[in-house]
Each structure stands twice: as structure tokens, then as C-alpha cells.
Amino acid sequence: MKGIIIAGGTGSRLYPVTKVINKHLLPVYNKPMIFYPIKTLVNAGLKEIIIVSNKDHLDSFKKLLTDNGEFFGINFSFTKQKEAAGIADALASCKKIVKDDKIVVVLGDNIFADDILPALQKFEKQDKGAKIFLKEVVEPQKYGVANIEDDKVTGIEEKPFSPKSNYAVTGLYMYDNMVWDIIAGLQPSIRGELEVTDVNNYYLKKGGLSYEILQKDWFDIDTFNLLLEANLEISKK
């Protein structure tokens, strides 16, 4: 199984800080932001991680991580997303490297305190399909929201006006190799992007979507307030 960290995008909500620096290289307490999702994957036993970023910043990740591969005990690969066209589009750039392996995908601006190894072990035993990770939040309308009935996900809505649950879909996903065919068949959303929610809903319709509910801290850092909150909380650990 291979890990993928998506560290693209423009980080527009963190301008002007991100005008020349990729958001995922900003410090969260005493480490670059991307070190946290790397550690999540390393703690789950993964030895191969692919970093996806844009052409302007990919060399910065190579410079940071090439010397740290031995420190983390893993092998890094790097691939380029041609334009900011969505998470699923960024994921598609990894197909040639991943081949037929199952994958664990983490968004580079998401920090997780939970140990995902037990969930990964369950997914390895799952014959096919996908797994998503949910977190109960106070303002679910800001996220993709999963509706759960009889211990099954019955629907996922992107930033709904009236959420059917308080369970946000976090930036952590596990997929089998069917994901490449699913992405190839996607149509751009009204934002002009290939949406990961559409990928998850496809698996849902095919009956192959499982889920885990996270119990510990989760940070989805896309504003200055959330960046500050993450810094303050992690500094206490």
C-alpha cells in the first residue's frame, strides 16, 4: 500500500503569506505543516509516500524531504499537478507510480491525532472499495457531510445548507485501484474541478464505501484562525 499527500492549490485564504510559499510548508509549531500528515502515514507503517504539488513549489518539497527520507524511514516520490483542478485531478497524477496498489490519501493541510493503523489493517482485509474518515464537528455546513443510517453511510453532501448529520468528511481517504477508472469518468463540477466527493459517492453507490469515526483532534487548516488554533494546540502536546 502506498501513501499520497496532496499539497497543491494556491492557499488563497492565507494570502499574502502564501504568495511565495506553499501553504503546506508553513510552520505548525516547530515543524512544517506537511510533516504531520507524513507522520500519520509513517505511524501506520507505510514506507512509500508520493507528494503531489504544483510546478511552482514541487522543488521546495524535494529540497525539504529528499534529505529527510532516512529520518522518516521511507521513500519519497514526487509528482506534479499541472493546474489547481481539484483533489481528484491531483490524485490522478499518481496513477503511474501507484500502479495496482491500494492507496491512503491525506490532504497536506490536514493534521490528525488519531492512530490510523487499525483502520488501515481493516482496509487491507476489505476486498474492494474505499474508506473515509469522519469527525463530529460543530459547524458541519462548512464541510462535506456524511449521513449515517444503520451504521452505513447513505449519502455525502458538499457544504449543505441543512446538514443531515454533524459528521464531516475529513481529508483522509483509502482507495482500491478502481479509483483511477472512477476519476477518468468524472466531469468537472461547477467550480471546474474534479471533486473527491464525487469519487466517494461513486463508491457509495456501488456499495463499497466503509468509514471510521475519528475520536481525537483534527485540524483542516485553510484560514489564519485555524492555523493559529493548530499552532496553539500542538504546542501544548
Describe this structure in words.
The protein is of the alpha/beta class and 237 residues long. It has a single domain (2-235), classed as Alpha-Beta Complex (Spore Coat Polysaccharide Biosynthesis Protein SpsA, Chain A). It has helices at 35-43, 58-66, 69-72, 87-92, 95-98, 117-125, 179-184, 196-205, 224-235, and strands at residues 2-6, 27-28, 31-32, 48-54, 75-81, 103-107, 110-112, 130-136, 144-149, 152-158, 167-175, 209-213, 218-220. The strands form four sheets. It has a seven-stranded mixed sheet. Strands 2-3 form a two-stranded antiparallel sheet. A hairpin with a 2-residue loop joins strand 9 (144-149) and strand 10. The mean pLDDT is 91.
Short note summarizing the structure:
The protein is of the alpha/beta class.
What is the makeup of the main sheet?
7 strands, mixed
Order of helices and strands: EEEHEHHEHHEEHEEEEHHEEH
Structural class: alpha/beta
Per CATH, what is the topology? Answer: Spore Coat Polysaccharide Biosynthesis Protein SpsA, Chain A
Uncertain parts:
none
What's the count of strands? 13
Question: Which architecture name does CATH use?
Answer: Alpha-Beta Complex
Tell me the number of structural domains. Answer: 1
Helical content class: 25-40%
> Going across the major beta sheet, what is the strand order?
5-4-1-6-11-8-12
List the helices and strands and how they pair.
Elements: E1 2-6, E2 27-28, E3 31-32, H1 35-43, E4 48-54, H2 58-66, H3 69-72, E5 75-81, H4 87-92, H5 95-98, E6 103-107, E7 110-112, H6 117-125, E8 130-136, E9 144-149, E10 152-158, E11 167-175, H7 179-184, H8 196-205, E12 209-213, E13 218-220, H9 224-235
Parallel strand pairs: 1-4, 1-6, 4-5, 8-12
Antiparallel strand pairs: 2-3, 6-11, 7-13, 8-11, 9-10
